Amino acid sequence: MAKPKLIVFDLDYTLWPFWVDTHVSAPFKKVKNHIVDGSGRKIKCFSDVPDVLNKLKSDGYILGIASRTEWPEGAEKLVKLFEWDDYFTYKEIYPGRKTTHFERMHKASGISYSDMLFFDDEARNIVDLKKIGVTSILVSDGVTKQLIEQALQSFKS
Question: Is the distance from CB of 134 to CB of 113 less than 8 angstroms?
């Protein structure tokens, strides 16, 4: 079975259930075992995400983030607070087209688009990346273990 050499995730509505640039506010901080925003609201990721990231990394996959958020600093801070930095080799977090994010990951990694697997909640990004050869999966309600398993089983099959 063919395996992707790089698995990339969007952030908003893919790894966490909100838009970082409009639904939460600074400053972010950890209080006990929770992350809270400036209004004291608890911030959570989708429930399967920690296990998914841990399993993929322990299985030897290289992981990346491609986010077109208007608030890169906020997204970066949350990635740190969720303690996800060790999972991601590539992080492209800034406004613009996802094709730019992937072009930079391709140049940095030497991995071809056809060896990449991408998860995102926005159809426009899926369409753009399929055009350049990235296997792209539309996420409807956050990344789940089942979605990852199905994507890995169908990758290049």
Answer: yes
Helix, strand or coil, per DSSP, at residue 45: coil
Q: Which helix (H) or strand (E) holds 23?
A: none
As a whole number of Å, the CA-based R_g of the chain is 15
* 136: Cα separation from own chain's centroid: 12
Instruction: Give the pTM.
Output: 0.96
Cβ(14)–Cβ(126) under 8 Å? no
Closest CA to 82 of 6, 138, 24: 24
- Positions marked catalytic: 10, 12
Query: For 144, what's the count of Cα atoms within 13 Å in the CB-facing half-sphere?
Result: 8
36/43 Cα distance (integer angstroms)? 5
Residue indicated by tokens 């399993």: 55
Q: Which of 84, 20, 78, 93 is nearest to 49 (CA)?
A: 84
pLDDT tens profile 27-78:
999 998 899 999 999 999 999 999 999 999 999 999 999 999 999 999 999 9
**Helix (H) / strand (E) containing 43:** strand 42-43
Please answer whether residues 30 and 127 qualify as being in contact, where contact means their C-beta atoms are separated by less than 8 angstroms.
no
